[in-house]
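Note to self: the last two entries modelled the partners one at a time, which told us nothing about the interface. This time every component goes in together.
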Amino acid sequence: MSDTIRIGIAGYGNLGRGVEAALARAPDMKLAGVFTRRDPAALRLASAGVPARGMDDIARFAADIDVLILCGGSKSDLPEQGPALAALFNTVDSFDTHARIPEYFEAVDAAARRGGHLALISVGWDPGLFSLQRLWGEAVLPDGAGYSFWGKGVSQGHSDALRRVPGVKDAVQYTIPSEQAMARARSGDNPVLTTREKHARECFVVLQAGADAAAVEQAIVTMPDYFADYDTTVHFIGAEELRREHGAMPHGGCVIRSGATGAGTRQAMEFSLRLGSNPEFTASVLVAYARAASRLARQGERGARTVFDVAPGLLSPKAPAELRRELL
Amino acid sequence: MSDTIRIGIAGYGNLGRGVEAALARAPDMKLAGVFTRRDPAALRLASAGVPARGMDDIARFAADIDVLILCGGSKSDLPEQGPALAALFNTVDSFDTHARIPEYFEAVDAAARRGGHLALISVGWDPGLFSLQRLWGEAVLPDGAGYSFWGKGVSQGHSDALRRVPGVKDAVQYTIPSEQAMARARSGDNPVLTTREKHARECFVVLQAGADAAAVEQAIVTMPDYFADYDTTVHFIGAEELRREHGAMPHGGCVIRSGATGAGTRQAMEFSLRLGSNPEFTASVLVAYARAASRLARQGERGARTVFDVAPGLLSPKAPAELRRELL
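The predicted structure of the combined assembly is written out below.
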C-alpha cells in the first residue's frame, strides 16, 4: 500500500457523491475509482481523472484500492454486496437496518476473514455516532435512561413506503421529534416515552391522476410499522411544489442520557446533530472511518468491526502525539 | 486476575469518594482497597469491608489490584504519583493540566513500560469526553471550526487562585459561558471568538478580617492567566453564605463543531453536559475507563494510553455481540 490511502466508491448515488466530495477534503486520501452498476461511460464524476468502472469488473482492481466504501442501500444492495466485496477488499459501509445488524455482521465477518480483509460495518450517524453516544451514556451513567430522537428530517425508508401506496405518484416523509418529549428526556425524571409520544410523521404526497385522496390518506395513517403507531399528518401537494420545497435532505436528532451518581446527583449528557444534508454527512463519517479501516488493515486486523471496535484516534490524519497536544 | 475487576483508589477526596460510589453501580467491578496519605484508621469509607491503607504501603498490594484509580490533584499529586504508581499497577488518572499532557504522558509511559503495566491518563470529561468530541468534529468535518465552552460551573483551579490572593479567606469561582458566543458558534459562520467573548468569571469571596476589599478586587481582576483576559465580577460575601450557597460542585459545558460538506452544505455537531457534581461525573468516567484499562492490560498492552486509544466497546460490561444487537 502507498502512503496515500486509495479509496474506491461502490455505488454512485447521493451517498457515493457525498464520499467523493468528502475525499476532496482529506489530504491523506485519494479517490482511485468509482464502480457502478449503471453504464460507467454515462457517469459524470465531479473529480477529474478518476476512472469509472462497471461493478462486474471490480475484482480486477483489488490491487488498486486500499479501502472500498460501499454506497449502496441497506434494503437490497448491501446484504449481497457487503459480504461479496469484503471477500475482495477492505470495506466500510453504512448498513442501517438495525434489526438485521447481527446477521449482517456475521455474513460480512466470515467473508472478510476468508478474504483476509477488514470490514467496518454500519458506519454513519445512526448507526454510528449516535450508537457511540448511547454506549457512552450507558457505560458512564449506568443508573439512568437513554433516549434517541431523530429529525426533523427526511426518512428515506418512510418516503419509500409512501411511494408504494396505490394512488401515490411521489412523496417525502419528515420525521419530527416532539419538543415536549425531548424536554421530558432531559429532565432527569427518566420517563417512559411511547413511540407516539416521541415522534410525529409528516407526509407530503403527490397523487396519481384520479387517485382517491381520502383512501390514500387512510392507507398511509393505518400502515403498520411505518405510520400506525405515530401521529401522522398527510398533505397533498403538486409535483412541482414537492420538487421545489422538499428536494433537500436535511436531518438530525439527538441522543440524551440522564442518570444519577453518588447519593442521587443528577447528571446529563446530550449529543445532537443538525445536518444540512444527511447523505453528505454520512459520507463524511464513512471517509473518516475509511482512514481507520486502512490503518487497522495495515496492523493486520481481519474480519468485521463496528464503530465500537475503533479507537477514536484512528479517525484523524494527525499523529497520536499531535492529537494529545492539540485536542486532548 | 479474577473475573471481577479489582479496583484500588489512591486518594480519598471528592474524586475518590465519587469513584467509590460509581463502583457500587458496576456489577463487574469491586473496590479492593483505598490508599491514603492521611491516617488510614481515620478514614470513614462508605463501603463496608473495604480496607483503608497508607499510601506508603501501596507496593505491597500490587497482587490484589487489577487497576488503580489515581484520585489526586493534577497540580502536585499526579506529576509525582502518576509515573511512580504506573510502575507498580495498571492505572487510570484524570490529569487535566492540558499544557503539560505531553510531558506527563512521556513520564507515565516510560514508567508503565518499565513496570509492564498499562496506564490510561487524562480521563474524565475535559480532558476526556470533550476531547473525543473535538477529535470527531475535526475528523468528520475537517472544513469547519470547533469550540469548547465550559460552565456554568465551579473551577477548582480558579477558586484556588482566588484563595492565594492576600486578604482572601475563602472563595469560589464560577466559569460562565456566554450564551451569545455559543449561539455564534452554532450559527455555522465559524466566528473567531476571543477568550473574553467566550466566558465570564464570577467570584464569591470571603475576606479576612481587616482586608481591603478594593485592593483584593483589583488583585483578582488583573491576575494574569486566570482573570485578566476575562470579564470578572467579584462579590464579597460571608463565610456562612459561601458554605450554604456555593458548596455544591455543578459543572458542564459543550463542544460545538460546525462545518461544510459538498458544495458548502452546513452541518453541525454538538455535545453537552449538565453535571450536578463534577467530581462524581469525572469519577464515573474513570470507572468506565478502568474497565477498559483492565481489558487492555489483559490483552497484553503496555505503556501509557489516552481516551483516543481506547475502542469505545471496551468501556461497556456488555459483550461485543450484545452491544451490536442493543446499542448499534
